[in-house]
Write the structure tokens for this entry.
Amino acid sequence: MITLNLYYTGKNGCARAFAEEMVRSGIVTSIRAEDGNLRYEYFFPMDDPETVLLIDQWRDQAAIDRHHASAMMGQIAALREKYDLHMTVDRFISDDSGLPEKDLEFIKL
């Protein structure tokens, strides 16, 4: 599993407006329906009103490659441009080992 944390940053509420338009336009629903998409959710940092965090999770690199080759990417790129957003990305690959026993002591399930 591959998880991407994408931070969209803009000015004057543009990052939030971008996320809202992504949802309203149906693009988010379409992405969530793509083969291999496991999660696609926006979050809003409490201490930074000009940034939106997208957690984008995929089964494998092949699923991400298919997504990037889709016509939807043109729509997404156009919206990023419309709202003049800048991005940073963190990429994580799951090791499928689960949480260490010591960490579970601090987590209420």
Remarks:
- The mean pLDDT is 95.
- The helical segments are 14-24, 27-33, 61-69, 72-82, 101-104.
- The longest strand covers residues 2-9.
